[in-house]
Amino acid sequence: MSKKFTLLLVGSLLGIQLASAQEDRGETVVETKPSAPVKVVEAAATVSDGKSLTKAVVVEEEEAKLFTFKATTGWDSLYMFRGINVLGNGNGLYWLGGSVGVAPWENGSFTAGVWYGIGTGRGYQELDTTLDYTHTFGDFAASFGYINYYYPNYFFSGNYSQNELYWKLAYNKTVGPVTLTPSATYFYELGPNLPDVNGITKAGSSYLLLRLDASMALYKDIVSLAPWTAYGVSFGYNPQNSGNFLQSGNNYEVGVAMPIKVTDWFTVSGYVAYSYQWNDLYLTDPSTVWAGVNATFTF
Predict the structure, then answer these.
(1) Is 53 in the same domain as 119?
(2) Based on the domain organization, do 176 and 196 belong to the same domain?
(3) What residues pair up with 227 in beta bridges, in sequence order?
(4) Do 162 and 44 sit in the same domain of this protein?
(5) What is the pLDDT of residue 197?
(6) Which of 262, 255, 184 is nearest to 226 (CA)?
(7) Nearest by Cα to 65 from 31, 24, 104, 26
């Protein structure tokens, strides 16, 4: 009896430890970090002599992908960007995006992305190009990146662009069935300055975003719930209706999304969000509710 109990206990602990390792490797702190798929091969339990029960569990890690490709599309009822209702009430946004990532070494990855949005009002168009490098240290991730914002036919007055740098720190922690990801991202605007505000910032300004994301499976790995909360701080970044640029806390935001994994490479998600701002931000009500839907293709 003692021998049988010992074998069962060791087998159970081994299975738990390997399952935990699989879960850790399957989680990514940031989307730009390609992950290595993990496959668990479990042998059927066998009874060899009627006295002992053996169970073999083998974890086989496949080779990580060198390149990853992602395509996204979606619609938002409002274009809310860092607490500003950029196009004003009644004007939504349709958008397309794509990215390619390369992981030349185990803990580092480069990502190049493009995003194009079309406003449903005011003839708005925006084309963004992003370059990012992310390095992971266990459950921590540090990112550095560059964004170019290009505005063709800028509110019917010409073509303009702005440039921005950002730094991000994130931490990934699983607590029971919930994965928590607190992060801090600092954006610095390089400019140049544009001729009027319209929700666009000035060179030399900056913005700090403190955010907490969570994720919990509702049905296997197919349907999940992804709430978030965020607090922004403007350092001369966001304009006010008075024409000044804000130098204080910007807004508080909460939201929840429900991603649905249709296939291994196709996911759809809907969300609803709420933002509260108290500093008369340009075109933005004190309380704003908006929603959206998006689809993601990953290869």
Answers:
(1) no
(2) yes
(3) 256
(4) no
(5) 59
(6) 255
(7) 104
